Amino acid sequence: MRRRDRGDGGIDARGPDTWRLRYRIRGLRHAMTFHGSLSDARKELRRLLKSGDDGTHIAPDKITMAQWVEQWIAAGAPGRRQRKVGRRTLKRYEELLRCHIGPVLGVRPLQQIQAVEIDAAYRQIEGKIAPRTALHTHIVLGAALQTAVRKGLLSINPLDRVERVPSPGEADHGAVLDQDQLRALVEGFRNSVLFPIVAVAAFTGARRGEILALRWSDLDIEAKTLRIERAVEQIGTTLSLKGPKTERGKRTIAIDDDLVALLVAEKQEHLRICAGVPDGVVVDLSLVKLPDGALMFPRSPAPGESFSFTALRNADSLTKFFAKAVRKSAFLICASMTCAARTRRCCSTPACRYTSSLRGVGMIPRCCCAVTPSARARPIRARPR
């Protein structure tokens, strides 16, 4: 009998239909456990040796799905472009995988996860979460597994072989206001503390977080423009400012005389507060200067708390306040029009200029027309945020 060469590997019986495969790849020793018949174990050993010759060998690793997800999140959840995502997005990715994938596949070795197991996991969450959440979970899981392929932990992505991808369900296209409806909405808030915010939202098309991050230094009264350079970001209970994802997100928006006058009046109120001048007293405020970084719409102080010009306002609380006011006034939003902005066409029609997109309540419209040429180069799609 011919003596077995060291490069041929070896098979040791470990129990009924359980085998330990031993082999070398580029001088490194590897071992793995295989379940099946002896004939299948020999085929698997030959495949492993061939993968070493082809340069496609994946070294055995005992890392579990939960451990790999933790590593992937710690690295910033890089995807196809190998870039880190934002902090809020990162927290959402971690929640999706921890809540919907971890309980089913978290303890499974990453290299042993099969497509049928992923199908079973999808069946377990089906009906328990929203269809779009299930689709987002599928997308995030795919990105995590594809990164494992790129890192050499997996030879193929098992998600490519799943039986059925979760359906997104019926899309929420938001609502669209014409000019009369939009002005009626704004006028309905004239006696509300939200009036300046609603007016800026309606006639600039800026996002909710972008409006709450506006500073007085972003307003150019002479040029009649607002500069968008940042947005409020909430992670848990912590509020902070963040920049746009790309430089194209920074833009200058042209505003009309009415909005300029409204913002100037709002700034005068802030100057009075800063100088401690009561309402009704006529004084020269030209020498009063607001603190650096003073916000246009800072958070209202709590009882016993001093006013801060840089305190960030909670965007979710703003939305709830707005929704309550809309329900109270019984304002009905027309959702029957189709916005040209959704098809990435830029025009001057009311439906295009006043597309509503504030999450859940249809407050803030996206404007793809009333902007400067630099901002018009990036058409804005209306979508739930």
CATH topology heading of the largest domain: hpI Integrase, Chain A
β-strand amount: 5-15%
Let me know the number of strands: 10
Q: What's the CATH class label of the largest domain? A: Mainly Alpha
Biggest beta-sheet profile:
3 strands, antiparallel
Unreliable runs:
331-385
- Return the domain count: 3
User: Main sheet: which strands, in order across?
Assistant: 1-2-3
Question: Which structural class should the secondary elements be placed in?
Answer: alpha+beta
Number of helices: 12
Measured between the Cα atoms of the first and last residue, the distance is 71 Å
Instruction: Compute the average pLDDT.
Output: 78
Tell me the helix content. 25-40%
Morphology: elongated
CATH architecture of the largest domain: Orthogonal Bundle
Radius of gyration (Å): 29 Å
How are helices and strands ordered from N to C?
EEEHHHHHHHHEEEEEHHHEEH
In short:
By secondary structure, the chain is of the alpha+beta class. Helix content is 37%, strand content 12%. It has twelve helices and ten strands.
Walk me through the topology.
Layout: E1 10-15, E2 18-25, E3 28-35, H1 38-54, H2 65-74, H3 87-105, H4 115-125, H5 131-150, H6 179-187, H7 195-204, H8 208-212, E4 219-220, E5 225-228, E6 231-235, E7 238-242, E8 251-254, H9 257-275, H10 315-329, H11 350-353, E9 355-356, E10 365-366, H12 373-376
Helix pairs in contact: 2-3, 3-4, 3-5, 6-7, 7-9
